[in-house]
Each structure stands twice: as C-alpha cells, then as structure tokens.
Amino acid sequence: MVVHPGHGNFTGTLLNALAWYFKGVKNKKGEEPKAYLVHRIDKDTSGILLVAKNELSQSRLARQFFDHSINRKYIALVWGNLEKDEGTISGYIGRDNRDRLVMKIYEDEEKGRESVTHYKVIERFSYVTLVECTLETGRTHQIRAHFRHIGHPLLTTENTAAMKS
To answer: Is 93 in contact with 110 (CB distance < 8 Å)?
Structure first.
C-alpha cells in the first residue's frame, strides 16, 4: 500500500485511509484527529510504519531519527552471492538523470546526499542471498539503490516475473 499521496497515487493511500477512519471523530479539544507521518517505507515493502497522533509526538519521534538514537534493521533478498559475509555500502544518493523515479548512487557529493548501509549475510541460497541491513542514513530507496550499485539488485516481483519468461 502506498503510504502517502504522491506521483500517480493520489487516493488509496494509508494517510487517505487514516483520514477516513478519523472522519467525524473528535479529540478532547473538539478537533478531528490527524495522522502525522514519522517514518515510512517503500511501496511493496513489508515492515513497520510510524504514524503519530499529534504534532508533539511526531516532533519527538522525528528527532530520534534525526539524532540516530534509534536502530533500523531490514531484511532483504538480493540477486547473486555476495563476496563478503558483511560489509558497508556508501555513496551519495540522488535521482537518476535518465529516470527521475529511480535513485542512483554517485561518487560525487554534488549529485546526491550521503548514504550508508551496513549489511550482514543471513543465509546464502543458490542464486540469491538473504541479508540483514542496518541503516546509518535513511534515504529514499536507499537499500534498493545500494545493492543495485554493487551489482546485487533486490529480488522483487518484477525480477521474478522476468526470471520466469
């Protein structure tokens, strides 16, 4: 499910659903409650979303992300067999010049924002590897862009469809 309205997804999002859910409900001040997005994940990705019920909570939770006082770990299935059992992928992440919807890793800091992902192999299969990713930074499509950059793109429904044909 798409989390918030954006390019090509103006309805049917989580925030749309929460607005509908709260419609007609009043808080102690007599106001309709709002959902304040704190942390989201990419479409078609499973995991935890963090939504606050008021601005103060949103501010305090967002501060923890900014201060890096929380840990975010993700599990990903990537194509190929990674050389090392653990490692760090870094670079400057920015929009791809050829496809603005895709994030790309650049060596030049002028082209993107710093991004760092630490990974550890959980299990190796014949042609894919299950990895645990710990993020130092939280950039858009960071894990996806980092593993594509090192030649091990994420296994997705698009990949499996291509593999079958």
So the answer is: no
96 is catalytic: no
- 10, 19 contact by CB (below 8 A): no
Q: How many CB atoms lie within 10 A of CB 137?
A: 14
Say yes or no: domain 73-164 is CATH 3.30.2350.10.
Answer: yes
Specify the pLDDT at position 43: 66
Checking if the pLDDT of 158 tops 60, the result is no
Taking the model in full, what pTM does it have?
A: 0.76
pLDDT score, position 111:
94
Angle at 94 between CA 108 and CA 141, to 5 degrees: 130
Pick the catalytic residue from 42, 44, 96, 108: 42
d(CA 39, CA 71): 13
Q: Which residues contact 32 (CB under 8 A, 6 or more apart)?
A: 22, 23, 24, 25, 26
Residue extents of the structural domains in the chain = 14-66, 73-164
Q: For residue range 79-95, what is the model confidence (pLDDT) as tens digits?
A: 999 999 999 999 999 99
